[in-house]
Design a protein that fits this description.
Shape: globular
CATH class of the largest domain: Alpha Beta
Keywords: Aminoacyl-tRNA synthetase, ATP-binding, Ligase, Nucleotide-binding, Protein biosynthesis
Number of strands: 31
GO molecular function, one term: ATP binding
Largest sheet: 10 strands, mixed
Number of domains: 3
Radius of gyration: 31 Å
CATH superfamily of the largest domain: Gcn5-related N-acetyltransferase (GNAT)
GO biological process, one term: methionyl-tRNA aminoacylation
Mean pLDDT: 80
Family: Belongs to the class-I aminoacyl-tRNA synthetase family.
CATH architecture of the largest domain: 3-Layer(aba) Sandwich
Strand content: 15-25%
Domain N-acetyltransferase: 654-880
Length: 931
């Protein structure tokens, strides 16, 4: 694994970067533990003499009072991914991580284990170093705060605080009285303390209202940093740099804390109480506060106290470009740290990225509860890169994230084994080695043969729409860069997943294995090359973009595609830029049968196995999913692409539509208790239990599609989000306003025919009887239940958004319905994909009906006779009334699908329509976008 990481890093190294910076890209990301030094730095590379500063990114240094857990690995991987992204762009980057090894908790933990503090930190620091190694982390420095270089930096910083500042801004000695938490290593103000009971004994204790940690009253003489004197400077900095902390909610949180809770900071502890730490060089009866000691590590790495001392000197890699922290230590990094730097007139880090925590089954991980995830077992179970992928895919900046082996198994099978691995083997390792050649396909593209055969493309038939994948390949890079520039690997992963899902759809639709039967005709040989080329280009582009997230697996994918190492940077992630990769079926060894355990994503133990069972399984036989299972999964992925994301939200300026989920039921149930709504919808009141059963059946139904109508997303966002997690602000009960539904019905002439004014039979649709065999009709239903939201255009906006969704995904809707019902007929609509459906006015070919193939012909709506507002709404949308009022007092209105795209409102509805991936709370964590 290390060699492949090295190869990847060397391939990403900028060709024209200064020699001292090139050391970062070529240096081994880790030393063997027995070769470990406290800090891995190259003396000749510090400070940096060149003008271009590498992108400097830091993890927090991890406290070594206990073994590492999955949260530590997540932070490391997040930083590593963002560093590798910089390298992917051809830039120099420098990653620092390490361990925090002083403080009261260390002293107490060592005493409990009957070892010296030094023995404890040496042992536990090696565990974090090993985790970085096994997690594929490419750190350039592993700093330990017990290292002499760091102690020198702290002493110099401390002396400057004490002696180099005006009296009112420097350190002063006083008696400190306050509530101190040993666990959190900090004092808390009186207004953040509350009484509690100790669970084991029932004894009354005082705890921090923020963390729940026990506090004790302490009175002692200490040195103080006059933090309150820097309040205005801090607030001014926050005002001038509103995006300094990401996410925005944490920026607001920090500002509120500074405005309301700021106190001068006690920055020493009596050495008689705390001996394990760095002593005040001028007053050895005092030990420097562990957080002051720890924060200075970021400067130590940059050469402070050794190579430079003042900002007028060459500060090497300082300031940090990005400092990544967990939510529990945001105050130390966003309040104390900038104030300390301001005191010495040193530059502040350019950005703070704050992430949330991981939970197990939605409970905070705790050693006492026994639900802490061992990251070493997790790596052994799933492999380094798949675990990195999952952590980046599901990690959140706004809400705590649930860790589950069931979730990882689902992601591994669907997104890695099927969507990437099996797709590769379908295209690059077909059953018969003589079916096609990737090199022939590439040569055919660069010879311009595809353009010469564009007459063979039929946009109305997915089997002949050979160019339908190209917009997806062309569009992925811009979205990927936007998400990664915004420090959002989850959004970038989603975009890559969507590209590969579309590729599965493309392969299933175009059926290259059937095209091979016609390749005796030269034109079909070109068509085959066209399909193969687009498919391998999608894999190549995805492989390049996945390198920061899965460096080893992505590297292997690119190796298998025979992509040259120097052509793996981001500028090559564009369709039609590389003419030198691929292979011929005659290449020796290329087309040998691949055993399942030797594939890019081999079988793994099941999620239900315990960790000890996994270790036994990994040493012997693993569960072996059959090829048919993966092929079936690939077909379902293809169907998802036709249908649109199974969990898709729709955003427009007036409404947000989200799938109907269990957390919506309580509010929906409340709506349906309203007699007026019962009357308008002809509904009987149900119990809450029955309502939950309804929700489950609606979501599983093949003939019903339901969206909850919510208030629109904020218009302040610079770009639309790519992912919404369920049960966040955006689809909370306060934001729900109604629902919109779509039902599929078999066409019934008796149901839809009536006598028009001329005495002729009419059903509201413009077609002959012969064309009606195989028809389906879609019924639309809208309810704006919140009275305050009526009359604001939200009903119209919701219906328009639904109709655009149907137009884009009608083929998938019918295909899914047939698949679930076991229909033997095929479901073909000429809008083969969302890329062409919205621009092709002839998106419905009703002539397919009557040949055993199904088609959606028209839309209907049933409205109570007295509901003038709804009748007017649908009239504006182009629906026309059918017949008279029926037995139930309803009027039926219909719209022929051929006429849908001709309506005046269609163009604007299409322009405002935006699909967003939606994950319900049960699939991963909540809160990708939140308040």
């Amino acid at each position: 694994m290390v060699s492949s990481v090295l190869r990847s890093l060397r391939g990403l190294r900028p060709a024209n970067s200064p020699a001292s910076y090139q050391k970062f890209a070529s240096r081994s990301p880790i030393r063997r533990p027995w070769q470990c030094r406290s800090i891995y730095t190259s003396p000749e590379s510090q400070p940096f003499a060149d003008t271009e500063k590498p992108y400097y990114i830091t993890t927090p240094i991890f406290y070594v009072n206990a073994a590492p857990h999955i949260g530590h690995l997540y932070t490391m991987v997040l930083c590593d991914v963002l560093k590798r992204y910089q390298q992917l762009q051809g830039k120099s980057a420098f990653l620092s991580t390490g361990t925090d090894e002083h403080g009261m908790k260390i002293q107490q933990a060592a005493a409990k284990e009957a070892v010296t503090p030094k023995e404890l930190v040496d042992n536990n620091s090696q565990k974090f170093l090993k985790l970085a190694h096994e997690g594929g982390i490419s750190q350039d420095t592993f700093i330990r705060t017990t290292n002499q270089q760091h102690k020198t930096a702290v002493s110099h910083f401390w002396t400057q605080l004490k002696n180099g500042l005006p009296k009112r801004l420097g350190l002063y000695k006083s008696t400190h009285k306050g509530w101190y938490s040993v666990s959190d290593e900090c004092f808390y103000p009186e207004d953040l303390i509350e009484p509690s009971l100790e669970p084991q004994t029932g004894k009354k204790i005082m705890v921090s209202s923020e963390t729940g940690s026990m506090v004790e009253w302490v009175e002692e003489e200490t040195w103080f940093f006059p933090l309150t004197k820097y309040k205005e400077q801090l607030l001014k900095f926050y005002d001038e740099n509103p995006g300094w902390i990401q996410p925005e909610s944490k920026m607001k949180e920090v500002r509120i804390w500074v405005e309301n809770h700021l106190e001068d900071l006690s920055v020493t502890r009596p050495a008689a109480r705390l001996s394990w730490g760095i002593r005040d060089p001028e007053d050895p009866k005092h030990t420097i506060y562990v957080w002051v000691d720890a924060l200075i590590n970021y400067l130590t790495v940059a050469g402070y106290g050794d190579k430079w001392h003042l900002k007028e000197e060459n500060m090497g890699i300082w300031p940090a470009d990005l400092q990544v922290v967990g939510k529990d230590i945001i105050r130390f990094h966003a309040v104390y740290w900038p104030a300390l730097l301001m005191a010495l007139d040193l530059p502040l880090p350019k950005k703070i990225l704050c992430h949330n925590h991981w939970t197990m089954s939605n409970r905070k991980m705790s050693k006492s509860v026994g639900n802490v995830v061992n990251p070493f077992f997790a790596i052994q179970r799933w492999g380094t890169d798949p675990l990195r992928y999952f952590l980046m895919r599901n990690g959140s900046l706004s809400k705590d994230t649930s860790y589950s082996n069931d979730l990882i198994e689902m992601v591994y099978l669907k997104e890695l084994q099927a969507n990437i691995g099996n797709l590769y083997y379908r295209i690059c390792r077909p059953k018969s080695s003589s079916k096609w050649s990737t090199t022939d396909a590439i040569e055919s593209y660069f010879a311009g043969e595809f353009k010469k055969n564009e007459h063979m493309v039929d946009l109305s038939d997915p089997r002949c729409n050979y160019s339908s994948l190209e917009p997806h390949i062309d569009g992925v890079l811009a979205v990927y860069k936007r998400e990664m520039d915004n420090n959002n690997p989850a959004g970038a992963i989603n975009e890559i997943f969507c590209l590969l899902r579309e590729t599965n759809r493309y392969v299933s639709d175009t059926e290259p294995w059937n095209i091979t039967k016609k390749t005796d005709v030269p034109e079909f040989r070109v068509v085959l090359n066209w399909v193969v080329f687009n498919s391998i280009e999608a894999l190549r582009v995805a492989g390049i973009l996945l390198q920061p997230i899965m460096p080893t697996k992505a590297g292997r994918l690119l190796d298998e595609l025979n992509v040259k190492p120097e052509r793996r940077t981001i500028q090559w992630a564009v369709r039609g830029t590389d003419d030198s990769y691929g292979f011929s079926p005659t290449d020796l060894g290329v087309m040998e049968k691949v055993q399942s355990w030797n594939t890019i994503f081999p079988p793994t133990p099941a999620a239900t196995h315990s960790d000890p069972e996994v270790l036994d399984i990994l040493g012997g036989i693993v569960e072996n999913p059959t090829k048919n299972r993966l092929n079936k999964m690939s077909e379902w992925i293809a169907m998802e692409a036709r249908l649109g994301e199974i969990d898709t939200a729709i955003s427009t300026p007036r409404v947000l539509l989200v799938p109907y989920e269990p957390h919506h039921v309580l509010k929906y149930h409340g709506w349906m208790q309203d007699p007026d709504i019962q009357e308008a919808t002809a509904s009987e009141p149900l119990s809450l239990e029955e309502e939950y059963s309804n929700q489950i059946s609606w979501r599983a139904a093949s003939d019903k599609l339901t969206f909850i109508v919510c208030l629109p997303l904020s218009t302040d966002a610079a770009a639309p989000p790519t992912l919404i997690r369920g049960d966040t602000l955006h689809d909370s009960a306060d934001h729900m306003v109604g629902d919109v539904n779509f039902f599929l019905h078999e066409y019934d002439p008796d149901e839809y025919e009536y006598d028009d004014d001329d005495g002729e039979h009419d059903d509201g649709f413009d077609s002959s009887d012969e064309e009606r065999d195989g028809w389906l009709v879609g019924e639309v239903d809208i309810m704006i239940a919140e009275r305050a939201s009526r009359g604001r255009g939200m009903g119209k906006a919701a219906v328009c958004a639904l109709l655009v969704y149907i137009q884009r995904h009608v083929r998938g809707l019918l295909a899914e319905g047939d698949a679930r019902r076991g229909s033997t007929s095929s479901s073909i609509i000429s809008s083969a994909s969302s890329a062409t459906a919205t621009t092709d006015a002839d998106w419905l070919d009703v002539n397919l009906a009557g040949r055993g193939e199904r088609a959606l012909k028209g839309l209907i709506v049933r409205i109570k006779e007295g509901n003038e507002d709804s009748r007017a709404l649908f009239q504006k949308l182009g629906f026309r009334q059918q017949g008279e009022v029926n037995y139930f007092g309803e009027i039926k209105m219909a719209l022929d699908l051929d006429a849908l795209l001709e309506q005046e409102w269609w163009a604007s509805a299409l322009e405002e329509y935006h699909e967003v991936r939606y994950e319900p709370p049960s699939v991963g964590e909540t809160g990708a976008i939140g308040p």
